[in-house]
């Protein structure tokens, strides 16, 4: 079965196969109504997590948002222990992160609480959002396709969670540590607005969570016949260059140590993606071999 046929069959299945689990068929407006309720339930879940974050904002602000600025943050403590263990000196122990956070808008602090609670609500509600998306797509899939995609919500949520944790505990602290201590001149003191600080932490954290979805992207593209393990293996050297560029952009620090810390997980994800694509290809060829119409 060619890649063009696989892609065409997939689009036909999504477009025309409207049979539900009860054997009935849904019209276009029925699909819109079903989508509306999936979105409503997702919004309710995100709203619940947002309200919880809003009610416990003291903890959210002190321990989560301002965590990378605190000298006793987990990452800085681990860096200090590693420096002592390998006898690298006291330079790896954080005593103080020298920059002040200020607010320059009348409603800035209230907006901070709303935005922070909403962002945390979206992050915590992301697995349920994926679940609702899967429930909407599942009726358009055959039983074999459903079986092949079994566990996709769990693995996508797991990868996103690992990426968020990696971005929050590794990339964000390293970036804040460097940028807070960087000075062009001693005459300039760092007065950082709370919007700039929050935007930096959120961007680094969420972007890493999205990047960690690389194996899921490889799974989808391989299912569509748009990606093969042979292509990924032959393009590995170019992929490494791209990863180094991405690491340099994501971590605005000049030291090679930080770049390697970011690049190594990307390389691991790339290798996992090759394995995922290989398994999809084997299953595809096995199905095609047993299908007399191909």
TrEMBL record:
The keyword RNA-binding does not apply. The keyword Protein transport applies. Keywords: Cell membrane, Membrane, Protein transport, Translocation, Transmembrane, Transmembrane helix, Transport. One of its GO terms (cellular component) is TAT protein transport complex. It is found in: Cell membrane; Membrane. It is a multi-pass membrane protein. GO terms for molecular function: proton motive force dependent protein transmembrane transporter activity. Pfam families: TatC. The chain crosses the membrane at residues 39-61, 112-131, 152-176, 196-222, 234-250, 256-276. GO terms for biological process: intracellular protein transmembrane transport; protein transport by the Tat complex. Part of the twin-arginine translocation (Tat) system that transports large folded proteins containing a characteristic twin-arginine motif in their signal peptide across membranes. Forms a complex with TatA. Belongs to the TatC family. PANTHER family: SEC-INDEPENDENT PROTEIN TRANSLOCASE PROTEIN TATC (PTHR30371), SEC-INDEPENDENT PROTEIN TRANSLOCASE PROTEIN TATC, CHLOROPLASTIC-RELATED (PTHR30371:SF0). This is Sec-independent protein translocase protein TatC. It comes from Mucilaginibacter gossypiicola. The lineage of its organism: Bacteria, Pseudomonadati, Bacteroidota, Sphingobacteriia, Sphingobacteriales. The gene is tatC.
């Amino acid at each position: 079965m060619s890649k063009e046929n696989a892609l065409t069959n997939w689009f036909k299945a999504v477009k025309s196969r409207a049979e539900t689990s009860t054997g009935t068929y849904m019209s276009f407006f029925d699909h819109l109504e079903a989508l509306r309720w999936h979105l409503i339930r997702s919004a309710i879940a995100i709203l619940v997590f947002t309200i919880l974050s809003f009610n416990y904002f003291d903890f959210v602000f002190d321990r989560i948002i301002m965590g990378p600025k605190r000298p006793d943050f987990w990452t800085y403590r681990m860096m200090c222990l590693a420096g002592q263990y390998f006898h690298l000196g006291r330079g790896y122990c954080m005593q103080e992160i020298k920059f002040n956070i200020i607010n320059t808008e009348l409603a800035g602090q209230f907006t901070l609480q709303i935005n922070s609670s909403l962002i945390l609500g979206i992050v915590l509600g992301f697995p349920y959002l994926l679940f609702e998306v899967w429930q909407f797509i599942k009726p358009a899939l055959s039983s074999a396709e459903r079986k092949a995609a079994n566990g996709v919500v769990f693995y996508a949520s797991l990868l996103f969670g690992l990426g968020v944790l990696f971005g929050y505990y590794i990339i964000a602290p390293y970036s804040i540590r460097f940028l807070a201590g960087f000075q062009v001149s001693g005459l300039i003191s760092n007065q950082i607005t709370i919007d700039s600080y929050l935007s930096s932490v959120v961007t680094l954290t969420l972007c890493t969570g999205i990047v960690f979805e690389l194996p899921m992207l490889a799974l989808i593209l391989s299912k569509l016949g748009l990606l093969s393990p042979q292509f990924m293996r032959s393009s590995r050297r170019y992929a490494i260059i791209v990863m180094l560029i991405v690491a340099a952009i994501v971590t605005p620090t000049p030291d090679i140590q930080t770049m390697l810390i970011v690049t190594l997980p990307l390389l691991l994800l790339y290798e996992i993606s090759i394995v995922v694509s290989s398994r999809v290809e084997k299953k595809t060829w096995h199905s095609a071999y047993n299908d007399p119409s191909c």
